[in-house]
Design goal:
There is one protein chain. By secondary structure, this protein is α+β, with helices and mostly antiparallel strands. The protein has three domains: 1-50 and 178-202, no CATH class; 62-159, Arc Repressor Mutant, subunit A; 210-457, BirA Bifunctional Protein, domain 2 (2-Layer Sandwich). It is 37% helix and 24% strand. It has helices at 7-18, 24-31, 35-47, 65-73, 76-83, 91-98, 102-111, 134-140, 152-159, 179-182, 209-223, 237-240, 272-286, 292-296, 305-315, 356-370, 412-415, 431-438, 452-457, and strands at 22-23, 51-63, 89-90, 115-118, 121-124, 145-146, 165-177, 227-228, 234-236, 260-265, 297-300, 320-329, 341-350, 375-379, 385-395, 400-410, 424-430. Strands 8-12-13-17-16-15-14 form a seven-stranded mixed sheet, with helices on both faces. Helix 5 (76-83) packs across helix 7 and helix 11 (209-223) crosses helix 18 (431-438). The longest helix is centred in the middle third of the chain and has 15 residues, at 209-223. The radius of gyration is 48 Å and the shape is rod-shaped. The structure holds phenylalanine. Phenylalanine is lined by residues 303, 305, 346, 382, 385, 406-408, 426-428.
């Protein structure tokens, strides 16, 4: 008979085949299974009629208080006869010698006809070769002995005496194979799948969690009807700052905030009209001397908004839903929430009746789709939007509200010089911040640590 067995069953059957009839403890030792596995395995085998469980009883004996006393000093009757070995003795003398043992010693010796009483004296009649019970007494001694090592007849001489023998009953379950069980072959058990069997862990290639987040965000935008626009990572200051109405003395344009491409200046930064109109917007509204050489300085883009504005300046759409996504760079001190190089997502909606309310509605929808619901809007400032808002989201791991997206409606000082006629809603923010929320991290650097343990443990779908 060949069947499919669980690994636990196999081990139990094999062990019982070698040694039928084993206690639970013994099976545990021979199979190296846990008590719980043994119990389960036996239950399965019992239901299949392959094994039976028998209650067994094991009796053991040890000496009680009086037994120990006799083991150490001799049986009372033996001590009595010993006292009489040199001739008869007075009862009073014997009583004094044996104390409370005198009575029982006398009774037994008389019954066995070992002594004689003559008025107030007692004399020895016969000295027995062996004293009943003595063998058992010496056998047990200070130990505990199993029933089957005890001479039943000899033991009787002790068992009637008070506190001589203490009996202990150990109940035990013994497992044995039935005849069907004995003829069962376990080694050939192939052909079915053991769904509980352990398999080696395999770490196959997977996309990085941050890449998963980027893909997810891209998908959300596409399903919301947005098209992707792309731009260069290196940009002239003109598109990264000037076109966005950021004055040339703005602190963001300083070395400690922005990475400049060392001594590289853009020859062509825009059309003459764009340059003229942008510069006059600066002069008129900020009241300073606008320097074209400052605008020519090449930078690593500090935000994706430069991609947005360049696209809008080229297309001048009356209606648009676009997004851009990519790496941006900031000369900042690296910390748990800041990297010098990170990813941004930026969304743009252009439309005749686009309002701030629409912008907030889109934000809520976007966050909901990504699984973030605890958000609030906060007024803030950007040189290129009015009004400007910021979304704050609650990071459970940090137990803090963190800034996520900046947003607003592009100022006329931005749109007019570039010929953009309709209201532009725009918002943008760090993707790593979103991923931190998704993966419950409290340090953004974890995405770039190449910590294989963490990368492997991150679930693919949240
Ligand atoms: N560019 C801003 C940032 O880097 C975000 C933003 C985008 C703000 C669009 C307003 C409009 O944080």
């Amino acid at each position: 008979m060949s069947k499919v067995f669980h690994e636990i069953e196999k081990k139990i059957i094999q062990s019982l085949k070698e040694n039928n009839k084993q206690t639970l403890e013994k099976l545990g030792e021979s199979t190296k299974l846990s008590p719980d596995q043994i119990r389960r395995g036996i239950e399965w085998l019992r239901l299949k009629d392959l094994a039976v469980v028998n209650q067994s009883q094991k009796r053991t004996f040890r000496l009680g208080k009086n037994g120990i006393e006799s083991f150490q000093n001799g049986l009372p009757e033996k001590r009595l006869l010993k006292l009489l070995s040199n001739g008869p003795k007075k009862i009073s003398e014997l009583q004094q010698e044996l104390g409370s043992l005198f009575g029982p010693a006398m009774g037994l010796s008389k019954k066995n006809d070992w002594i004689e009483t003559l008025s107030d004296k007692i004399s020895l009649k016969t000295l027995p070769a062996v004293f009943p019970g003595e063998k058992t007494l010496n056998h047990i001694g200070m130990e505990e002995k199993p029933e089957d090592t005890i001479d039943e007849k000899d033991c009787l001489a002790l068992s009637k005496r008070p506190d001589f023998l203490i009996e202990n009953i150990i109940k035990n379950k013994e497992i044995s194979l039935t005849d069907i069980g004995k003829s069962t072959k376990v080694s050939e058990s192939t052909g079915a799948i053991d769904v509980e069997a352990k398999v080696p862990e395999l770490f196959v290639a997977r996309t990085h969690p941050l890449k998963d987040t980027i893909d997810e965000i891209r998908e959300i935008f596409v399903t919301l009807g947005f098209s992707e626009i792309i731009g260069n990572m290196s940009q002239s200051s003109f598109w990264n700052f000037d076109a966005l109405f950021t004055p040339q003395d703005h602190p963001a344009r300083e070395l400690q905030d922005t990475f400049f491409l060392d001594s590289i200046s853009a020859k062509k930064i825009g059309t003459p009209e764009q340059i003229r109109k942008v510069s006059s917007s600066h002069k008129k509204n900020w009241h300073y001397h606008w320097d074209i050489n400052e605008a020519r300085k090449m930078v690593l883009r500090t935000h994706t908004t430069c991609v947005t504005i360049k696209h809008l300046a080229e297309q001048k759409p009356d209606e648009a839903r676009v997004f851009s996504l990519g790496r941006v760079f900031r000369n900042e001190k690296v910390s748990y929430k800041h990297l010098v190089e990170f990813n941004q997502i930026e969304g743009v909606v252009v439309g005749k009746n686009a309002t701030l309310r629409d912008l907030m509605g889109i934000q809520r929808e976007f966050y909901k789709r990504i699984g973030i619901t605890k958000i609030k809007f906060w007024p803030t400032f950007f040189p290129y939007t009015e009004p400007s808002l910021q979304t704050m989201v609650y990071n459970e791991k940090l137990d803090k509200w963190v800034e996520l997206f900046g947003m607003g409606i592009f100022r006329p000082e931005v749109t007019k010089p570039l010929g953009i006629k309709k209201p532009v809603l725009a918002w943008g923010g760090g993707i790593e911040r979103i991923a931190m929320l998704k993966y419950n991290l409290n340090d953004v650097r974890e995405f770039y640590n190449n910590n294989l343990g963490w990368l492997r443990s991150v679930t693919k779908c949240q």
